Amino acid sequence: MARSAVRPPEPDTLQISHRSRPSLISDLLRSKKAVISLGMLTAVVMVAVLAPVLSPFDPSKVQTGPFFAPPSSLHPLGADNLGRDVLSRIIWGSRVSLLAGLLVSSGALLLGVPLGLLAGYLGRSADTVIMRGMDVLFAFPPVVMALTFAAVIGLGTRTVLLALVLVYTPSVSRVTRSAVLGVRAQAYIEAARTLGQRDRWIVLRHILPNSLGPVIVQATLIMSYAILSEAAISYLGLGTQSPEFSWGLMLSDASDYMWMAPYLALWPGLAIMLVVFTFNFLGDGLRDILDPRQRSVLRGE
């Protein structure tokens, strides 16, 4: 009688299946940080999507009110040195900040996850070459990388996004490599090799899904770092250029009028702080949910 094929044991890890999805949702609802941050993020996304509807004025139109108009019923956040409505510019500027966070995080994941997988699973010379290359990129601060790209392709939002993708790719690759090293040492990976499964199948079926927990948390943190870095680089004049809209560009324009109209810097600064805190809280909430030890504390076990 033929012996039935022995399947490797399934890991008790972070892999999301149809059976685990309800428990993850319930854990999400138990985490106050995750619930609050998701609510705030939804509100910010809705503001960005509905910017043409929500903004009371054309953000680039000058003299919608008196120059340096203080907050009033007509201009709730005031008007800038050209008479442009600050609230409208804050609403439209949210698009650039969210787009920067999303594109930089996505680009860093697309580059960093495969490199981290290769370095962690192959090891030896591949690990050395890949991680030393990541160390070189890690040595460049965002502003220095933006300066390099600005000298090659010119100023603008594209320059900032390309520079930030390269700056934050090493952090993703390091987190992925660390997670892969932990998963690769598990018994079920050795069982899969013993059964003759190919390396590609082992990586895609077992290692990658069970290494995504810390990578997802890192992605949310990169979104907050990218938004903050984009604002800083635009403030220095290397990023978003007029007539585009950016919170960092608004801070740059307001820096000359700090004593005359401090509210011009107050509102974009608060907007940046709110969005950065939102993504940081979301990362903390996801960490509590995806980490088995934190999840047991969350459930009161």
Question: Could you explain the architecture of this structure?
Answer:
With 301 residues, the protein is mainly α. The chain has helices at residues 21-30, 32-49, 51-54, 86-122, 124-138, 142-153, 157-184, 187-194, 199-207, 212-235, 247-254, 263-290, 292-298. Mean pLDDT is 82; it is low at 1-21. It is built from 13 helices and no strands.
Secondary structure: elements and pairs:
Blueprint: H1 21-30, H2 32-49, H3 51-54, H4 86-122, H5 124-138, H6 142-153, H7 157-184, H8 187-194, H9 199-207, H10 212-235, H11 247-254, H12 263-290, H13 292-298
Helix pairs in contact: 2-4, 2-12, 4-5, 4-7, 4-10, 4-12, 5-7, 6-7, 7-10, 10-11, 10-12, 11-12, 12-13
Largest sheet: none
Order of helices and strands: HHHHHHHHHHHHH
Separation of the first and last Cα atoms: 46 Å
Number of helical segments?
13
Please bin the fraction of helical residues.
Answer: 55-70%
Overall 3D form: elongated
The fraction of residues assigned to DSSP E strands is under 5%
- Indicate the structural class: mainly alpha
Radius of gyration: 23 Å
Q: What is the typical, i.e. mean, pLDDT?
A: 82
* Number of beta strands: 0
Low-confidence stretches: 1-21
Keywords for this entry:
301 residues; mainly alpha
Summarize the structure.
This protein is 69% helix and 0% strand. The protein is mainly α and 301 residues long.
